Amino acid sequence: MDKPFRVLFMGTSDFAVPALEALHSAGYMIPLVVTQPDRPAGRGLELKESPIKKKALQLQLPVFQPEKIKSPDAGEILQTAAPDVAVVTAYGQILPASVLQLPKLACLNIHGSILPKYRGAAPIHYAVMNGEKETGVTIMYMNEKMDEGDALLVKKTPIGAQENTGEVHDRLAKLGAEGLMEALELLKQGKAPRQPQDSSQASYAPSLKREQGFIHWDKPAREIANQVRGLSPWPVAETKWKEMELKVHVASAEPSFAPGKAPGQVLYVGKEGLKIVAGDHGIVLLKEIQPPGKRRMSAYEFSIGHPQFGPGEMLS
């Protein structure tokens, strides 16, 4: 195909923005950008545009925001795009077969994991929470099943021992854009492979629930530290001191132990943070926390404002 592909783009969140930018910079024809409707957000519940809508308008691309992508009216508008390829990433709705079959060549998805591991809505969170040392993006041919399509290509990257989900997310978003450009070039050349997934090796990353943010101090220190960084910067891990709920933004597992101490006990308060005993008698260092209705702050700053908080106190 000599002329540029017509690419129908479907995305909503920040994760999708680098891919849209890359398509535009590379000169691909983008007849339509599909994103979620504006949603109420913030204390005033004012309607907020998605990151993809903002970027598309900045690039002077046409935007379509169907409430339901499965509706007949939406299908008619999508057909007018006449795409060679559809690119879907972090869109937020399940696509019907009629949309998947619309492109002439392929409907591709950028997924934030090395499939078949972490199929589902929150692959980056789970990879970090589970202490994975490596993750990546998969450019996948979409089918009607969730994240089960054949892989076109995979790009991998290490996860640093102290990296949080936000940092890994931003790197994978850029890696996904790079992978997409490579995938489209392979399609142009007629050399794009299809590698079926081994579903026996599949794992899942469903949408997060609030209770997953609660820190259980009877767990090992490393597991708690991974939970904190896996839930940072959103939705953020939580613990409780007396009746005060504290959000925990930054924590690490210390290379020391406190045998004979109860899980959740405050062992030490100092400028480097708060040392808390974990279930394996390991120690978790809380570095940044956030009291209710306050800004996030260093754990030491919190302790100065609450002088009764000290060694021997218990977190629950």
Task: Explain what this protein looks like in three dimensions.
- By secondary structure, the protein is α/β, with parallel strands linked by helices.
- It folds into 2 domains: 6-201, Formyl transferase, N-terminal domain (Rossmann fold, 3-Layer(aba) Sandwich), CATH 3.40.50; 210-305, Formyl transferase, C-terminal domain (Methionyl-tRNA Fmet Formyltransferase, Chain A, domain 2, Roll), CATH 3.10.25.
- The protein contains 8 helices and 15 strands.
- The protein has helices at 17-25, 51-58, 72-80, 97-100, 123-129, 165-189, 221-230, 299-305; strands at 6-11, 29-34, 39-41, 46-48, 63-64, 85-89, 106-111, 134-141, 151-158, 237-241, 244-257, 266-270, 273-277, 282-290, 297-298.
- Strands 5-2-1-6-7-8-9 form a 7-stranded mixed β-sheet.
- A hairpin with a 2-residue loop joins β12 and β13.
- The mean pLDDT is 96.
Descriptive tags:
single chain; 316 residues; alpha/beta; Rossmann fold; Methionyl-tRNA Fmet Formyltransferase, Chain A, domain 2; seven-stranded mixed β-sheet; six-stranded antiparallel β-sheet; elongated
